Request: fold
Amino acid sequence: DAGVTQSPTHLIKTRGQQVTLRCSPKSGHDTVSWYQQALGQGPQFIFQYYEEEERQRGNFPDRFSGHQFPNYSSELNVNALLLGDSALYLCASSFGGQAFFGPGTRLTVL
Amino acid sequence: KQEVTQIPAALSVPEGENLVLNCSFTDSAIYNLQWFRQDPGKGLTSLLLIQSSQREQTSGRLNASLDKSSGRSTLYIAASQPGDSATYLCAVKFNQAGTALIFGKGTTLSVSS
Reply:
């Protein structure tokens, strides 16, 4: 079992651009959540996908959107990037209430 | 508003020492609590999951306790080693917060040899 995987590992964008991050959950997990972790902070919940639908959303603007595919993999899209969007983006899949996180994507916005 | 607080923010201990990390939360109506380890710039590794009905969980040198009535959890690390150096995060799934995990800011542990 490869665990939760994310791509890319690192990404550098400029303000105003758009970015897409990708996540593959652990085998057998059908629920995927996305978190944003700023430097020195705990992760903040962005949203969760289940059965290809957004099930719950945190306090993030509409610039943050996502998608889940039939194979349970997921994408996080961020439009009109701001400097403040620079962070580690973590994907988690869950089963039985326990969350398993991927290695994250480090996004730097210049 | 559901919040999770971790104290201290940083801790330095010599190798071999037993230590306790603290986590407090504002609402006793929780579904579960999870402790994670995070190495610099890396993702989160799940250490222990405590369900609402449980009082503690153990894995190797780690023991996590849960006291819902007081809104506290502790992570006990026995015989600390330099390899334990990392940031430890506490995350709570509150009944009123749906499926989201609410994280503390973490405790950064440094174990010196």
User: Anything to note?
Assistant: Chain B has a mean pLDDT of 95.
